Amino acid sequence: MDLSKVKLVATDMDGTLLNSEGKVSSRFFELFEELKALNVHFVAASGRQYYSIIEKLKPIKDDIYVIAENGALTMKQNQELQIKELQKEIYQNIIKTAKSLPNTQVIFCGRKKGYIENYGQDFENFFSEFYDRYEVVDNLHDVVDDQCLKIAICNKSGAEKNVYPLVKHFEPELKVKVSGEVWVDLSHNLANKGNALFQLQQKHNISPAETMVFGDYNNDIEMLQQATYSFAMENAHENVKSTANFMTESNNNYGVELMLEKLIAAKKA
């Protein structure tokens, strides 16, 4: 494994760079400064809202690329590099279906903010971890003054079992992804982390052999396929482990940081 040629690092956030408490380690920020000095591009790629991602990475937010909402939006220094939005007729149909599902909460993931109906304070507290800017509305169907990047559906009993089978009929017209234990996301068919990463690779003339990627869930699969140095976290979904070329430690055991240390050592050797 010759990491000395790596020019771009992309990592998922939840379950990957973030520990189980939703925090980024101080160790990572120190390693990032070394990567920056070595001219290695860094990409944070998440199903999270853009504003939530940069809040987590506030000290370095002006130095990184951000792929948000599972690839529907790519940003750098508040500049929009690409966006894939859902048309109104499509997202209204998704909302109608999603609201009919039992024991679920539905999120309209807008370009400006996230929107939820009044699901109670407990859900709002949980939801606000992933959405730094949001609004509680009477009816999601009435949200009109925003672009829809995706519709997220939450089911605390398990999204893969209780939600995905009931919305997978939207494929292949839409991208339907189980993006976490409690999340299923529906977005534009071209909105995925892999396509967004490919555009950044093209922008900088960087090949998969010069790319390192980390992920833990199904919404990371296309992104992992864009890199020779693709790493599944020890805590990853089995689909991710079978896709990635390599394994690393869990998110709570600094799996990303351990490999970044090896990358930095290889670049300096």
Describe the structure.
The protein has 269 residues and is of the alpha/beta class. The chain has 2 domains: 3-83 and 191-268, 3-Layer(aba) Sandwich (Rossmann fold), CATH 3.40.50.1000; 88-188, Hypothetical Protein, Haloacid Dehalogenase-like Hydrolase, Chain: A, domain 2 (2-Layer Sandwich), CATH 3.30.1240.10. 32% of the residues lie in helices and 25% in strands. It contains 11 helices and 14 strands. It has helices at 13-17, 26-37, 50-56, 88-99, 121-127, 159-162, 164-167, 193-204, 221-224, 238-243, 255-268; strands at residues 8-11, 41-45, 65-68, 73-76, 79-83, 105-110, 114-116, 134-136, 148-154, 174-180, 183-188, 211-215, 229-233, 246-248. Strands 5-4-3-2-1-12-13-14 form an 8-stranded mixed β-sheet, sandwiched between helices. Strands 8-7-6-9-11-10 form a 6-stranded mixed β-sheet, with helices on one face. Helix 9 (221-224) links the parallel strand 12 (211-215) and strand 13. Helix 2 packs parallel to helix 11. The longest helix is centred in the C-terminal third of the chain and has 14 residues, at 255-268. The protein is globular and about 60 Å long. 48% of the residues are buried. The mean pLDDT is 96.
Give the topology:
Elements: E1 8-11, H1 13-17, H2 26-37, E2 41-45, H3 50-56, E3 65-68, E4 73-76, E5 79-83, H4 88-99, E6 105-110, E7 114-116, H5 121-127, E8 134-136, E9 148-154, H6 159-162, H7 164-167, E10 174-180, E11 183-188, H8 193-204, E12 211-215, H9 221-224, E13 229-233, H10 238-243, E14 246-248, H11 255-268
Parallel strand pairs: 1-2, 1-12, 2-3, 7-8, 12-13, 13-14
Antiparallel strand pairs: 3-4, 4-5, 6-7, 6-9, 9-11, 10-11
Helix pairs in contact: 2-11
